[in-house]
Amino acid sequence: MSKKEQIIEEIRKIYDPELPVNIYELGLIYDIKVKDEKFAIIKMTLTTPNCPVAESLPKEVNKLAEEINSSGGWAKGFGVDARDEDAIKSFFKEVEEEIAPIDVVIFNPGANVFFPIEDTTSRVFRKVWEMAAFAGFLTGREAAKYMKKRNEGSIFFTGARNNCSKRCDHWR
């Protein structure tokens, strides 16, 4: 199993307390970069600006980074609310100036929250929309600013499902 797969396996054990979904499947992990199986950067966000676990989720990701560091690798976890414009600007600036130029940004919010439409509250809908659409706009725009200066880089937006397979039962 690769180091990235090991990191993802561990992250899947961390659940959002308000939604019955782990933070990886929920799409709170925007990017995991592993270099030489020893170096990792984990970019994540929270589900709401005033998330009740705003301090505990980044601590769990940082604990994972510490485990990577103690095993001879190098990793740094970032807790970034991708819906907060200033937080996104600060994140990109810090990574670009203190770590390395960002070559690739993968925005994959997932937001795999499956509630029947009649049971979906406006609060849950707003959280999912903010994580998917608004945060994607802010992340893509900021990444483009840095990449355009260098005239290189790639930004990918993904997360849509082509089919529902077994999970579409809630629409019936």
Characterise the protein shown here.
Mean pLDDT is 77; it is low at 160-172. The chain has helices spanning 3-11, 56-70, 85-99, 122-150, and strands at 29-35, 39-44, 74-79, 104-107, 154-157. The protein has one domain (3-166): Fe-S cluster assembly (FSCA) (GMP Synthetase, Chain A, domain 3), CATH 3.30.300.130. It is built from four helices and five strands, in the order H-E-E-H-E-H-E-H-E. The protein has 172 residues and is of the alpha/beta class. The protein has a three-stranded mixed β-sheet with strand order 1-2-3, covered by helices on one side. Strands 4-5 form a two-stranded parallel ribbon. The radius of gyration is 16 Å and the shape is globular.
Topology:
Layout: H1 3-11, E1 29-35, E2 39-44, H2 56-70, E3 74-79, H3 85-99, E4 104-107, H4 122-150, E5 154-157
Parallel strand pairs: 2-3, 4-5
Antiparallel strand pairs: 1-2
Helix pairs in contact: 3-4
